[in-house]
Write a structure and sequence with these properties.
This protein is α+β, with helices and mostly antiparallel strands. The chain has nine helices and six strands. α3 crosses α5, α3 crosses α7 and α5 crosses α7.
Amino acid sequence: MKKLIPVFIILLIFSGCVSNPLTGKSTMAFVDNSELFPSSFQQYDEFLRENQVVTGTADAQLVERVGMRIRSAAEKWLEAEGAGSYLKDYRWEYKLVLDTAVNAWCMPGGKIVVYTGILPVTATEAGLATVMGHEVSHALLNHGQQRMSAGVLQQIGATGLSLMTSNRSPQAQQLAMTAYGAGSELFGTLPFSRSHESEADHIGLILMAIAGYNPDEAAPFWERMSALSGGGGTPEFLSTHPSDSTRIGNIRGWTPEAKERAAQFGVSF
């Protein structure tokens, strides 16, 4: 049984992968979106009922407008890739919520929340498009699905380790599980999360450009975010996000590509 565990994990990985049309990459998908999306929509509705949604204001209309333009950009891009049906199960919604948190998020399936606290930092419509392009990209790239799949894999690994150390002392078993937990976090979960953030930055930059927002304004937004946090924080290798300098440098490097992609759709800067 112990010898079969690695083989089982390998078979699981290869059998539970799908290809994303925006990146061409094969990603883990042990949890199908047909299960994930309905749960996401229900949680989103519950969140809206429990929080103060801002409606009818210029800011609320701005969030809606930017969201619609980002959605249209995604549809154009996917149509060009021959994957127009990719979004058939998405249920787009864009809400502004009264909260001082400098944050925004997008749940699987296209449910977006922008907190009022981030608007002073976005400063411009293009700044907001930077944020919403990034968050929408998490949904388009199925990062939620991948995180859940990684969790499944991590649990299987823990079960396998428990079986393989079952003939050891309780102290040795505990030490092995502690090392596994720390190692899988440092070398698995954290790099995985940072790669998702960078991927969302990259795809989001292209989306905002196709939507007609100048990608040159993306790096200044992240510079404002960095200034707000004081430029410090957790070392990158211990963080779920790239460092501010890494993120800003990557975005500046990807900006020419974003403009080239947008030009393919008749958008120039």
